[in-house]
Request: fold
Amino acid sequence: MSNILNIYTQPSAPPVARLADLGVARVSYGPWLHRLAMQTVQRALTRIGGGEDPFTA
Reply:
């Protein structure tokens, strides 16, 4: 049996470095990266819709 620890993480989880210190070998982000990407896309589209440049802060 393997001693490798895998976890499914979420935004409230400890940082990856801390998880590694605790023995976690693999971190799965599930849908969280997709959600983050979609939030970024939504912000860009809102800026475009408002006549703004989506690439400036």
